[in-house]
């Protein structure tokens, strides 16, 4: 089976050091928009987790899935440190990705 394209793991937050969500997608802009617009019932809608604070890009979906599972098992403190290493102010990265 050959799969091509880009795959993303991402972290959303409702505020700095707030509630975190880890996800994986093949279309980061679309998926974050879905979270922001609350068009899908679930965790991010319930807790207003809409701020894209971290993401990684993968060429292989299996590597992306593996990384997502690893991040989901991480301690909260490790996830916060990961975000703060590249985004210390917890700026919403969606605006720069989507051209807003």
Automatic annotation (TrEMBL):
It comes from the Bacteria. Residues 5-81 form the GIY-YIG domain. SMART domains: GIYc (SM00465). InterPro entries: GIY-YIG_endonuc, GIY-YIG_endonuc_sf, UPF0213_domain. Signal peptide: none annotated. Belongs to the UPF0213 family. This is Excinuclease ABC C subunit domain protein.
